[in-house]
Amino acid sequence: MRNRFRMSLVLVFLTAACGRGSAPPSPTAPIPPTPPPPSPTASLAPPTPTPAATPILPSPTPPAAFQPRVEVVATGLEVPWALAFAPDGRIFFTERPGRIRVIEGGRLRPEPVATLPVAATGEGGLMGLALDPNFAQNGYLYVMYTYRSGNALRNRISRLTLRGQTAGEEVVLIENIPGASIHDGGRLAFGPDGKLYATTGDAAQRDLAQRLDSLAGKILRLNPDGSVPADNPFPGSYVYSYGHRNPQGLAWHPTTGQLYSTEHGPSGEMGLCCRDELNLIRPGANYGWPVVTAAPGDPRFVDPILHSGDATWAPAGMDFVTGERLAPWRGHLFFGALRGQHLHHVVLGSDGRTVVFHKELFRGEFGRIREVKMGPDGALYFTTSNRDGRGQPRPGDDRILRIVPGP
Ligand SMILES: [Ca+2]
After folding, report:
1. Which whole number is the average pLDDT over 359-380?
2. What are the phi and psi torsion angles at 15 (to 5°)?
3. How far is the CA of 403 from the centre of ligand 1 (A)?
4. What's the distance, CA 38 to chain centroid?
5. Is 183 assigned a catalytic role?
């Protein structure tokens, strides 16, 4: 099937959305001076001269002549939560009820490579998936999922080993991350520094997000063997950043190596609504939840670089476009919107912090969109989430789709 771009989509400039143009606040939390090093393989986006003290705003360059189309990769799925591409072309993905499945040679294998005994309740279940940077040699897959411990829900991060068509030999890396039927975070991704990053939600206990002795409401950073990296911002702690409500997206800029994360804003807590966030993540920084939301300029916290104001996106997976195939979008950031039912297209300025423009693509066309991931084939993959209990399933749902050059 083909879906043309809707060029009538709203183009919104950030200066209106964020409402603050002056210098960013400097958080009081200790900030180590060195961000993760840039990816050695990143060479595709234009160089980013950033030393200027004042953000330079390149003129927006909407790709007017670019007509992508959408291809169907797989159908009949149940809440595909995360995608991971193996070096040999296989596509691994999680389904939230507990299955790890694989698409091989363009065909979905009917049998999962693993079915995990997860607690698939509410927003929890089998969520994040990442393949080891040396996956071709060691077959390691990393997963994050919700499980039941007595009467409580918890989340854990585990490593599995793939042998043939079966993944097993589970090694638990982190246990007892607070869980709940909502706000479980769950995204896993390897950074360009070779460390494994994970997002955790506040597990509906919002005050935990400000507590450095809790793993809830955080972005965590760990060595692949589950130990704490020696250069983490808080010695002996997995915590990389804190003050998060329910972050569910992680992506590193292809040239600067800087980390970005999407986060769900309040849905009724303290009488607040909406204000979903896109954050530029700095090690050790405090992103404010539940003390502040949106971008109030409180110097104790780091404001988002973009937020949804009074609208709700419910942002999830995200990635930057790289490569030649979608060249007009190279270096642009895309994230899926569940409640917002669209793919959010973001162009950053050369400072990596200013949003030059952003717009909503495919609004309503595919329903809820959860995972977004750049494929090794140069296509941008995304997944629907219409069978998660909050959507309206359509024929073929849930689906994995990909954007390729059109028409
Ligand atoms: Ca925040």
Report:
1. 97
2. -55, -30
3. 30
4. 18
5. yes
